[in-house]
Automatic annotation (TrEMBL):
Keywords: DNA-binding. This is POGZ protein. GO terms for molecular function: DNA binding. It comes from the Eukaryota. GO terms for cellular component: nucleus. SMART domains: CENPB. PROSITE patterns: HTH_CENPB. PANTHER family: POGO TRANSPOSABLE ELEMENT WITH KRAB DOMAIN (PTHR19303:SF74), TRANSPOSON (PTHR19303). It comes from Falcunculus frontatus. It holds the Pfam family HTH_Tnp_Tc5.
Amino acid sequence: QKEPEGGRKEQLSVKKLRVVLFALCSSTEQAAEHFRSPPRRIQRWLRRFQALRDPAPPEGKYLSLEAEEKLAEWVLTQREQQLPVNEETLFQKATKIGRSLEGGFKISYEWAVRFMLRHHLSTHTRRGVSHPLPKEIQGNAGAFIEFVQRQIHAQELPPSMIAAVDEISLFLDLEILGSDDRKENALQTVGNGEPWCDLVLTVLADGSVLPALLLSRGRLPSPAAVPDSVLLESKEGGYGDDEIMELWAARVWRKHTECQRGSKGMLVLDCHRTHLSEEVLAVLSAAGTLPAVIPAGCSSRIQPLDVCIKRSVKSFLQKKWKERARELADSGCDAAALLQLLLGWLGEALEILRDSPDLVRRSFLVASVLPGPDGAAASPRRNGDVQEELIASLEEQLKLGKSRESPGKFPKNDDPAADPEILHRLFEGESETESFYGFEEADLELMEI
């Protein structure tokens, strides 16, 4: 059925779709900073697109469902490795997949936003476990869950010996730190280069949190300032993947298993940077620990640390950084002093996590690593409800507000004549609710259309 002409006027402009795509790939906050647009406005555009979008794209112009699933798998595996998923990388990959199709492939911002929403790939989702994965990797995830639960039951593994381990890499952009603008963006959790620090987190199915291992490049601060919950390793050239896991196995896992009087165990970990060298396998074998390697692309659904803990820890570290970034850069802070601050923030986050054993335990249930209390798996919807509850609970404890929009974040220009873009928006119909002082947003919602 042909859409009425009036409806077409309600479609978002290319400019707005581009902002929405940025928000879906990264976050509303990052899109707000990048495009100098308040988060509420971006969220409103997204809601409008969701309300207006067609159930399916026109025939013949876009990727097939099978091709889209391949692209969705790519997005998930990129994110697992903390590699960038943005407009550029998404369009490049989509074009590469689309080249193999007869008749070519039409790429557009509308298609890209639709694709991200259709495959539940927004970074905002708090109910990821309730959505199925792309077909092929959904099967892999199911086989993994069946294997893990069977081993836990057959070997009678105690919850204190069922662990999830994962890495968070932190990237420090010294160029941004030394520039005049946006120093808040110097610390990132996505990047292509060598990380500034690698953080290895380990949680247990009984709700315990083992010491975090922080691996840094460069000089160590004084050992006295390292929190009890963190083990620090540092060397000038940094560490390779094998070295990271070998240090973790020796310093964290071996120490833990020595206290467990020979119980068998299981270690849930992803398949990307956790290369299991002979040394690591020897430590796991000596400790009677079976490595359970999560299939590529499945971590967001079946890695207990991914369900709510890692995203909240990353947000907390970035929030702390943003609060201090400008004064740190202005004071010419060196790497050792920055590392000292990071250690303090980590100590805070881990203390809160250690005080939340029920949240850690429930992360294993929501990720389906453990069967439900009655032996049956909860429904995807129920798991989604619990995931949303866990994320909200941890964010509240870490004091992460839903919207961190602050006055002064977006520079106000009192003289419209000084900025032709403001005049253009006012007179070309692109002006938004917030431009009209004294009116409530709801009163002017229709003015956007």
